[in-house]
């Protein structure tokens, strides 16, 4: 169960012990955490979601392309922003906040204080669409002969979607059928991250996917949707 005063924070860190360590510390200090393995995954999955703070593994900021560095600079200007690294044993964290180096409580307390002072907001992205489409989820090819799990997709891009569902995310891969794309060929997808039901008061439950292949018709329909006006509720 989440608390009303939890602050929504996006964590960008490769899967593994470092990300697990960061998440434990953030949750312990009152953050509702959505985790993304890399900056590209965050760009794919953040559209339409609201955050007050961003916590980023220092290693994830190394070797960025020029456009990625510009994107990060925009995040620093728009959100409470902390850079993290794991130190230990024991498992502790250190990093920088507002240009100063801190460790442990001295790092997260001011970061989350700043995040709580900010109204949750979305991330400005291009080539995204907030329209919601119907989708059927299949966990494997063996399931294609049976009815799929009905859900919705949002945060549309040419490379992936966010699947909104209270059901647990499939492991690693799944197949999606999106009737509104005009071609019901199952779309093979890689599951990149998930927000389980009940894990956040700010983010709808579901999981982000990267499309591994699309038919010509599906690509055409997605391109048309991204170019068209967004629907107003």
Mind sketching the topology for me?
Blueprint (H helix, E strand, L loop, with lengths): L6 E6 L4 H12 L2 E6 L2 H7 L7 E5 L8 H13 L1 E8 L4 E6 L2 E4 L1 H12 L16 E6 L10 E6 L5 E5 L8 E5 L9 E9 L10 E6 L4 H12 L6
Parallel strand pairs: 1-2, 1-3, 3-4
Antiparallel strand pairs: 4-5, 5-6, 7-8, 7-10, 8-9, 9-12, 10-11, 11-12
Please give a structural write-up.
There is one protein chain. The strands form two sheets. This protein has a six-stranded mixed beta sheet. The chain has a six-stranded antiparallel beta barrel with strand order 7-8-9-12-11-10. It is elongated, with a radius of gyration of 18 Å. With 233 residues, the chain is α+β, with helices and mostly antiparallel strands. It is 24% helix and 31% strand. The longest helix has 13 residues, at 66-78. The protein has two domains: 7-116, 3-Layer(aba) Sandwich (Rossmann fold); 133-227, predicted glycosyltransferase like domains (Thrombin, subunit H), CATH 2.40.10.220. The chain starts with 6 loop residues before the first strand and ends in a 6-residue tail after the last helix. It is built from five helices and twelve strands.
Produce a short descriptive summary:
This protein folds into two domains: 7-116, Rossmann fold, CATH 3.40.50; 133-227, Beta Barrel (Thrombin, subunit H), CATH 2.40.10.220. Helix content is 24%, strand content 31%.
CATH architecture descriptor text of the largest domain: 3-Layer(aba) Sandwich
Give the helix/strand class: alpha+beta
Tell me the strand order in the biggest sheet: 2-1-3-4-5-6
Shape: elongated
User: How many strands appear in the DSSP assignment?
Assistant: 12
Order of helices and strands: EHEHEHEEEHEEEEEEH
In total, the number of domains comes to 2
> What's the CATH first level of the largest domain?
Alpha Beta
Q: Strand content of the residues, in percent? A: 25-35%
The CATH topology of the largest domain turns out to be Rossmann fold
Biggest pleated sheet: 6 strands, mixed
Number of helices: 5
Query: What is the terminal separation in angstroms?
Result: 29 Å
- Using only CA atoms, what is the Rg? 18 Å
């Amino acid at each position: 169960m989440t608390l009303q005063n939890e602050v929504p924070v996006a964590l960008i860190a490769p899967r593994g012990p470092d990300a697990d360590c960061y998440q434990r510390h953030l949750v312990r200090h009152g953050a509702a955490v959505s985790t993304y393995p890399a900056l590209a995954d965050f760009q794919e999955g953040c559209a339409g979601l609201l955050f007050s703070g961003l916590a980023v593994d220092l290693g994830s900021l190394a070797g960025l392309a020029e456009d990625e560095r510009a994107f990060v600079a925009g995040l620093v200007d728009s959100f409470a922003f902390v850079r993290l690294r794991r130190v230990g044993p024991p498992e502790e964290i250190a990093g920088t906040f507002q240009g100063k180096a801190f460790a442990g409580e001295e790092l997260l307390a001011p970061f989350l204080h700043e995040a709580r002072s900010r109204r949750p907001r979305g991330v400005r992205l291009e080539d995204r669409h907030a329209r919601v489409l119907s989708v059927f989820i299949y966990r494997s090819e063996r399931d294609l002969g049976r009815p799929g799990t009905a859900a919705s997709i949002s945060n549309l891009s040419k490379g992936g979607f966010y699947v909104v569902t209270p059901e647990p995310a499939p492991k690693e891969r799944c197949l999606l059928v999106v009737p509104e794309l005009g071609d019901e060929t199952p779309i093979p997808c890689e599951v990149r991250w998930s927000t389980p039901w009940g894990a956040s008061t700010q983010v709808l439950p579901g999981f982000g996917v990267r499309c591994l292949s699309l038919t010509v018709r599906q690509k055409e329909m997605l391109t048309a949707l991204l170019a068209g006006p967004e629907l107003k509720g």
